[in-house]
């Protein structure tokens, strides 16, 4: 029985990459779900482009305070030590390499780690927001995405055909069926979802992957 | 005796905005930090041919109900009313919203121009304008459509593009409190683009939740010094 991880589970797997004490920015969509999976023993300082560092998770919409939201317009829970700053200071933090990890969504990722995550056919007015700054500026850029498009096309590709966010920026990809690492030699398949073989993942992935010697099932 | 900056109504503070003006509008995208009452006053005032510099292009009243159930007016209404010829910002339309925002509709019909700017570059261009600089070199946008037509430079082996400053005739911003001199403090994430826009316009108009007397704000926590602020109005 082949299993597709749901968005919550993909986000949960991605959070295992967050080291205690790291500053992490979460992009629009699936990435913001990561804020709900931080265990007590780790303190993660969530940063958001609109000027906050150190919120502790997502709040419910019922008590929404519009002056305490993340960049995806979701209310967040304050935490001791939280601080606010303006947009220029926020992007100094991002561009200057002071954010440890950014998690972004993607339309496409190439085998060299190029990212396309903002523009899509038929929506020419959709903007890149802070995605370019984050993809280039964060010390580590990881992507959470579905492995294939709705019409079954690979989204992990040899070369991105959608407008680029940044070149050579992605280091890890977490999908509904695999965990992959971008290496100098190409895409390394490290983990597969329950029920999947490396060959079956390869069939849904455009570039030729390298299979990790210690390939394992994604632990959830 | 300082010039009186305190105005009684939002209509009064936007009365002299002229056709063709460049206007920065604060906030981030949704309700927090957005000078909603100043936007509505600008609609009533009716200036046309405007260039709007803002992070996001707004979603319009109907879609705003997805954000705040009772709805609110955002920058979208300026496009609906045909007051804008050009938008400069990072999120003209939001991918997560249906493609029915006023700006996106007009853009698809070729009736408004968009200059798309990465968000951090937008903030820094505003800060450059505010601080009297001629621009800056940034790595953001290299290898993407953002670099097209821009000067490139290699510094210490890394590729950068030149980005130029942004200034405006007016900035319409939102703060939490102002004293009558115009010193400003903000609240939470509503700070966002407001302080840097306050510094980059010839005339900065601020809508505040509360106006206080001189001396009531702790000098240690003032974010925008009064020298940047021209007009203050308390939100109705």
What does this molecule look like?
- The complex is a heterodimer of chains A (220) and B (236).
- By secondary structure, chain A is of the alpha/beta class.
- Chain A has a single domain, classed as 3-Layer(aba) Sandwich (Glutaconate Coenzyme A-transferase).
- Chain A is 14% helix and 27% strand.
- A 10-stranded mixed sheet of chain A has the order 6-3-2-1-7-10-12-13-14-15. Chain A has a 3-stranded mixed sheet with strand order 9-8-11, with no helix packed on it.
- The longest helix of chain A is centred in the first third of the chain and has 9 residues.
- Chain A is globular.
- The model of chain A has no long low-confidence stretch (mean pLDDT 95).
- Chain B has 236 residues and is an alpha/beta fold.
- Chain B has a single domain, classed as Glutaconate Coenzyme A-transferase (3-Layer(aba) Sandwich), CATH 3.40.1080.10.
- The radius of gyration of chain B is 18 Å and the shape is globular.
- The two termini of chain B are 27 Å apart.
- The relative contact order of chain B is 0.18.
- Chains A and B meet through helix 2 and helix 3 of A and helix 5, helix 6 and helix 7 of B.
Reported by name, the CATH topology of chain A is Glutaconate Coenzyme A-transferase
Strand percentage of chain B, roughly? 25-35%
Question: Distance N terminus to C terminus of chain A?
Answer: 16 Å
How many domains, in number, for the residues of chain A?
1
* Parts with pLDDT < 50 across at least 5 consecutive residues of chain B: none
How is the biggest beta sheet of chain B arranged?
A: 8 strands, mixed
Task: Output the CATH homologous superfamily of chain A.
Answer: Glutaconate Coenzyme A-transferase
Q: Strand fraction band of chain A?
A: 25-35%
**CATH topology heading of chain B:** Glutaconate Coenzyme A-transferase
Describe the sheet with the most strands of chain A. 10 strands, mixed
| Total helical elements of chain A | 4
